Amino acid sequence: MRLLFLGDIVGSAGREAVIRALPALRAELKLDYVVANGENCSGGKGLIPRHADALFAAGVDVITGGNHTFQHRELYPYLESTPGITRPLNYPPGAPGRGIAECGDLVVINLIGRAFMPAHYDDPFRAVDAALAGMSANRFIVVDFHAEATSEKQAMGWHLDGRVTFVVGTHTHVPTADCRLLRHGTAYCTDAGMCGARDSVIGDDIQAVLSKFLTQMPTRLAPAEGPAVINGVLVEADDTTRRALQIERVDREVS
Ligand SMILES: [Fe+2]
Ligand SMILES: [Fe+2]
């Protein structure tokens, strides 16, 4: 099984790059599944159903979320009605949507971290334990841990080592160089990075972000435009044991 996980897709630059590049990437990398974090797809914050539909049409199998998933209210019924989309599992009860998506023999679990994050979510460690307790072991399980702190992400990797196929971090939009197999066969990467404008500050317009830092005034941020990067992580896993065999970065520039 070969799976590509794409980091947070940011704004139209990221969206259009993924939509344009994915059909060829699927063939070139012989992909069975594509999972992408979509929390910044629409205007840089959140996701609207039309953009989710476009990603699915381009070859994304499962769209995951994060702290910006609930930005646009029109997504709420879509989260309930669309099996291929997740929001973090450990939101408190009552949040719309689901934290787990199933697609063939793939299960995607979406979690959100608590260290340095703006809200107090439920415990992601206990949430994933409870989810795995009720789950058949005979499937590929991929966990998108949407979190700020590298330590919390690494801890989650070890917590899940040997119990899932792949643990990947999202949210920082900066790709990390630590792709590896953990001791018991789980592939791990602290952050997938982003799909968005190359010349940007984590996907946003450089001048707007600089103005915010320099003046400390409230500033409306917007996604940057121009040539885009696609940051992703490719994992190959054994069809019988469901353990990871190989993990590598896939980072491309799309003009
Ligand atoms: Fe993000
Ligand atoms: Fe985020």
How would you describe the overall organization of this protein?
The protein has helices spanning 11-28, 49-58, 75-81, 124-133, 150-160, 206-215; strands at 2-6, 8-9, 33-37, 62-64, 100-103, 106-112, 140-146, 166-170, 180-181, 187-189, 194-197, 228-237, 244-254. The relative contact order is 0.18. The chain has a single domain, classed as Purple Acid Phosphatase, chain A, domain 2 (4-Layer Sandwich). The protein has six helices and 13 strands. The model has no long low-confidence stretch (mean pLDDT 97). The chain has 255 residues and is of the alpha/beta class. Helices cover 26% and strands 27% of the residues. Strands 1, 2, 3, 4, 11, 12 and 13 form a seven-stranded mixed sheet that branches. A six-stranded mixed sheet has the order 5-6-7-8-10-9, covered by helices on one side. Helix 1 packs parallel to helix 2. The longest helix has 18 residues, at 11-28. One fe (ii) ion binds next to loops.
Layout of SSEs?
Blueprint: E1 2-6, E2 8-9, H1 11-28, E3 33-37, H2 49-58, E4 62-64, H3 75-81, E5 100-103, E6 106-112, H4 124-133, E7 140-146, H5 150-160, E8 166-170, E9 180-181, E10 187-189, E11 194-197, H6 206-215, E12 228-237, E13 244-254
Parallel strand pairs: 1-3, 2-11, 3-4, 6-7, 7-8, 8-10
Antiparallel strand pairs: 1-12, 5-6, 9-10, 11-12, 12-13
Helix pairs in contact: 1-2
This protein binds fe (ii) ion (2 copies).
One fe (ii) ion (FE2) binds at residues 8, 39-40, 66, 171, 173.
